[in-house]
Amino acid sequence: LHCVSSFTQWLSPDTAVQCFKAAIASISEDSPLPVRMTAARAIASLSSSSHTGTPLLSEDFLRPHVPMLLQSIAKLLENATEDSALITLEALHQVLKVGSKQAVVHMPLVLEQVLLALGRCHGDVMIANEAVETVETAAKIPECTAMAAEASAPLILSVLQQPDKFVCTMVESVLDLLAKIVRSPESGPYKGPLLDTVLPALVFAMINVSSDDLLQPGCDCLRSYLRVCREEMIAMGALFGGHTVLECYRLIILRMLQPDASEGCGVSVAPLAMQFILRCREEARHAIGEILAAAITRMDGANSLRLRQALCVLFARLLNEDLPATLGFLEQHDVGGERAVSIVMGHWCKDHRDFCGSYDVKVLTAALGNLLICGNPGILNLPVPGTYVVDVNEGRVTRSMSRAAGKAKTDQWTQ
């Protein structure tokens, strides 16, 4: 069986069928635990694609065996050690991908054991990722979406309510699980605990907890809720201190854009601020100016390129969506006596050559094109950093040499 998992890609279909039958017979509870583990690994390999990219065993052949395999591997996961948990989870995930309507019967056992494995993995990244992907696959099955949400809610709530008791990778993995369950295709019609209990706990944690380990992945969860449950959140009543859900979103965004917040928080909250403005423009119109003003102040004091890029993308996307309103705000708003449009365009044009990421570069370039096409004299005549000037005669100057000379090297740009 160990050789089967190692040489699966080169097996013929007939040999693969014989090996699969042998693995099925070896995974029963009568076999010793090491044999069952090896059989699970062999089944996972035989259920995946061959070296040609086509399935070695067809789904029609595998589907009748799925219910029995799910039950057997889930029970095996219950007794798995830390070393064997990853192999067992991979096998369970691979079998779950095959799909079978009869698999729904065993899904409670599967979800229970996968979530228990996630809870006891102590933040092991590989085990946590495999467990999260397995639950995500289950949540994509229409009949299992509600089941996955209800089964995951206790673990998610425990992390949100007491994040200090978990290692940082565990917190990130559980919040990643929440975001994926909320985004699952069938989660729209079914909200259940996702809205009733998990969302209030998430919002409360984002307002009160100061740990970046929770705040940064929490932004992705809030974006998922905003995309899937916008109408339901607007209809919800007050959560904390008389604040509605959208008002809580505003407080969270402003909190994470404060100058004393970490730059990682700023990078994470910029996409959330963008989605909040675009999806709730009418309901949150009174908060848009406040959020944009905080983003400009944060950009002007940013030290990292990642943060400046994230905030530039925020303004670029808004310019692409509503150029007159966004440009009007930038021209009318001042920060420290300097026009906001000068601050934003100054950082934008200076750093544009260093920005990366296909989507971000497309959004930024499209926004620059729209600004040039609009013909606004204030934009066309705005002095911004142009080409970086290199002094070939200067020689090599390190930071330590600059400190010894008593002054830092100043970059030179054309206008």
TrEMBL record:
Entry-linked InterPro entries: ARM-like (IPR011989), ARM-type_fold (IPR016024)
Write down the SUPFAM superfamilies for this protein, in alphabetical order. Answer: ARM repeat (SSF48371)
Q: Which GO terms describe its cellular component?
A: cytosol; nuclear envelope
Q: Some GO term, biological process aspect, for this entry: which one?
A: protein import into nucleus
The name on file for this protein is MMS19 nucleotide excision repair protein
Q: Which organism is it from?
A: Hemiselmis andersenii
